[in-house]
C-alpha cells in the first residue's frame, strides 16, 4: 500500500504577539518605577528605631555645607537660600495638601540650631506631620538571649 506524502508546514516561532508582550512590559515598568525626588547625599544620624515614611512626602534636605534643598515630592529637589525660604515653600505645599507629610533629612554634622530653624519654619507653615530622617541601626535579635 502506497501512502501519499502530505504537504509539510513550515515550522517557526509565531511572532505576531511579540509586539503586544513588549508593549505590556513597557507599560508595566513605567507604572512600577519609583523615582527618587531628593538625591541629596547626607550623613544621617544613627537611631535604634526608624518608622516607614509615606511615599509622596515633601522633602527638605540640609547638606554638610548648610545648603537647603526642597521638594514637594512630585519633582526633583531645588536649592533655597536659607531657612526663612523654607517657610514660603512649606506654606505653598500645605495650602495644596494640608495633610502632606514633611521629611527633614539633615547631615549629622549640621548644628541643631540650624535644623531647629527649619523645623520652626515648618511649624509656622502649619505642617501636621514632620519626620526626621535617620540611619537605622540593625539590631540582631536572633543572636540575643541564650
What's the helix count? 3
Work out the helicity level. Answer: 25-40%
Parts with pLDDT < 50 across at least 5 consecutive residues: 138-146
Average residue-wise pLDDT:
80
- The run of helices and strands is HEEEEHEHEE
The largest sheet, given as strand count, sense and whether it forms a barrel, is: 5 strands, mixed
How many beta strands in the DSSP annotation?
7
Known CATH architecture of the domain at 54-136: 2-Layer Sandwich
Identify the overall geometry.
elongated
Strand content: 15-25%
Structural class: alpha/beta
The CATH topology of the domain at 54-136 comes to Nucleotidyltransferase, domain 5
| CATH secondary-structure class of the domain at 54-136 | Alpha Beta
What is the C-alpha radius of gyration, as a whole number of Å? 27 Å
Main sheet: strand order: 4-3-2-5-6
Terminal-residue CA separation = 85 Å
